[in-house]
Amino acid sequence: MSTDHPDARTRSAAWSPHEAEPLRVRADSRFGADGLPEGWWFGRVSAVVTDRAGEVYVAHRGPAGDPIVVLDAEGRYLRSWGRDLIRVAHGLRIDDEETLWLTDCERQQVYRFDRTGKLLLEIGTRDVAGCDERTFDAPTDIAFGHDGTIYVSDGYGNCRIVRFDRSGRFLGTWGEPGTAPGRFDTPHSVCVGPDGLVHVSDRHNHRIQVFTPDGAHVRTITGLGATQCIAFGADGTPWVTTYRDVGELIGWDSLGGRLFRLDPERWTVTGSFELNAHWVHPAADGVIFLAGLAGTVNRLWPGWVAVEDVEREHLGR
Question: What dotted CATH number matches 25-315?
């Protein structure tokens, strides 16, 4: 039996260490890909969420299949919708009433659907870009305030956060282009934390800004890179998908990147996973779903494969 394998100190000496520690998870990098109808495949997967029944909602951009695809917990196709309405799906979130909210970057709208795909609400003027109370310019994400307020990051064409009530009535807005606190350069994601504060991924400024529900600046979080998506787990743990910088993100066409688990008080990294991901959704059962623009839905669940166990198995053959 050969024993000349490198030890833990030398087997990956050329590699930089993981940020914090590697997440102790197992991964399925093709979730749902083999469960689609014949002739369908995922295009650029922009977002993914789950409901309380465990059904998985995938937003993607591609010629094969509807823009919203619903899978069961094992990745098998259930239903789909949106081909005649949605053009460029971007952000997808699910609220406490289990209705789904989607931003469409090309149609300049936010849609609200029930779980079957029935359109319940449209916000924004279809196919009209603007920067007033009736229009968006490539909106990116949606968040839900504790009082029912809807926050939209109007992020590619504009640099602002827009507030609405649940009926779509305009309540106000804050933000403009720039680098000062309260200003943005591509607000790509928005999420409300357990404390009710509004967290905004100010992606091209390489920071996250935190605000009161009315838009007063509270603090700025730096050091996490060019964050793509912010989400909070059921236990209040923050998760972000991110890249070292915007040049890496764009130059590598969203390849590379990291998933970070963060300390909820200090916002320091407590665990990391290396992958490309545009979106993160921590499900209530501890499973993490990630949407990849390379056309993947990744499912992570608690578990680990120890190097020693793999080596022992192969050496014993």
Answer: 2.120.10.30
